[in-house]
Design the sequence.
């Protein structure tokens, strides 16, 4: 993977991190009143406990922003990493973290803002991609690999 490709992942990660700050700020300041207007005193069952729907959705939105930030920082780190054992693993890690962010955080954002609860079925796919991404990242930086890659880097 050439240096411009590595830099590209840092740029993508930095942009996602900036957007995470914006969504987090919106979630903290603009979203609570809006959700209260929409859901009023409606409740949802969460772990066997009845909670106000707007509070549950606000928590979901904040979780999406947090996870977006964590994985954006992972992309920045991938872009900055220069001594990787397996560049194919870096590519798998980067794409998995990016797609995981879009599916996990994106589905939660849209679910909260639109009320389309079926989007909750997409969220775990994003979570699975996060796991794949971090495992591929670990493989790419692991000194135990002996400098070899099980899949050709070509």
Sequence:
């Amino acid at each position: 993977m050439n240096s411009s490709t590595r830099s590209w992942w840092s740029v993508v990660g930095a942009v996602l991190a900036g957007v995470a700050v914006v969504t987090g700020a919106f979630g903290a300041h603009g979203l609570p009143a809006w959700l209260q207007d929409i859901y009023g005193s409606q409740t949802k069952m969460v772990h066997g406990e009845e909670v106000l729907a707007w509070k549950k959705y606000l928590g979901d939105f904040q979780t999406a922003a947090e996870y977006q930030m964590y994985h954006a920082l992972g992309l920045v780190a991938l872009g900055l990493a220069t001594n990787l054992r397996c560049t194919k693993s870096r590519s798998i890690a980067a794409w998995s973290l990016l797609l995981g962010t879009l599916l996990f955080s994106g589905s939660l954002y849209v679910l909260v803002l639109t009320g389309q609860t079926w989007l909750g079925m997409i969220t775990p796919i994003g979570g699975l991609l996060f796991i794949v991404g971090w495992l591929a990242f670990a493989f790419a930086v692991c000194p135990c690999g002996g400098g070899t890659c099980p899949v050709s880097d070509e």
Notes: The radius of gyration is 18 Å. Residues 3-145 form one domain.
